[in-house]
Amino acid sequence: MVGRINGYGVLGLVVGCVLLCSNYVSAETLQSNNYRFDESTLGAGGLNQSTSNSYAGSGAYGDIGVGESASNNYQIRVGTPTTPDPTLTIELLSTNANFGVLSPTSAATATASFSVINYTSYGYAVQLTGSAPTNGAHSISAMGTTTVSQPGIEQFGVNLVANTSPVSFGANPDNGQFGYGQVGTGAGDTTYSTPNQFHYASGDIIASAPKSSGKTIYTLSYLLNVAGITPGGQYASNQTIIVTGTY
Fold first, then answer.
1. In this predicted model, what pLDDT tens digit does every residue of 179-199 receive, in sequence order?
2. I need a surface site. Which of 17, 63, 127, 149 has the fewest CB within 10 A?
3. Does 90 fall in a domain?
4. Does residue 88 lie in a domain region?
5. 21: Cβ–Cβ under 8 A, 6 or more apart, which residues?
6. Separation CA 66–CA 88 (nearest Å)
7. Kindly report the CA angle at 196 between 194 and 199, in degrees rounded to 5?
8. How far is 223 from 203, CA to CA, in rounded Å?
9. pLDDT tens digits for range 154-163
10. What's the domain range around 232?
11. PROSITE patterns per the record (predicted)?
């Protein structure tokens, strides 16, 4: 799975309740020559545990449950079948990170975001590839060492967390929809997970999930600094996100 963040810039980078109610109704015991319901409640929250010579039921109705019950003449299946096939989805939520006009006296920042969902693939890895911002033959220096912003020195880097310096920008991964995504390759990897510090190396794994995961929303926080001798003009860079399922 791939996604691309594009951009252009002028001496900068443009990488751009529903409430459900029911009325209670009492009724006589449901029965016939072949079956009888002894439970006082049938429906959402009710539990059917009735049996007869021709009937057996022990499924929860209206609750979360999966399974089946059977007798010689009757069979019931509870739950919705789901496909065992693995799926992996990436969505680019914002694709342009615009730094505007840059100055050697102050850092420029920008953000882009994407989300990943994987089902039964037992995890995934996210790579970020692409060149640093380039204008003709000149490229801004990528931050090969994880470090802080230093205005007046050429720097291009990224992290995936909330920052307070050089300004407040970015966000931590949002796992609010049953996600297990994390920054980097796992516990102890601080390359892209340290607030206010940035790094960039094309092809790095910037995020991952250790198991099947719901939606995780990631925010890429970009940092760009230029020097007083940085050639003027329009700088541009394309960043490609590659998501690979792990098994």
1. 999 999 987 899 999 999 999
2. 17
3. no
4. no
5. none
6. 24
7. 65
8. 18
9. 999 999 999 9
10. 2-16+95-245
11. PROKAR_LIPOPROTEIN
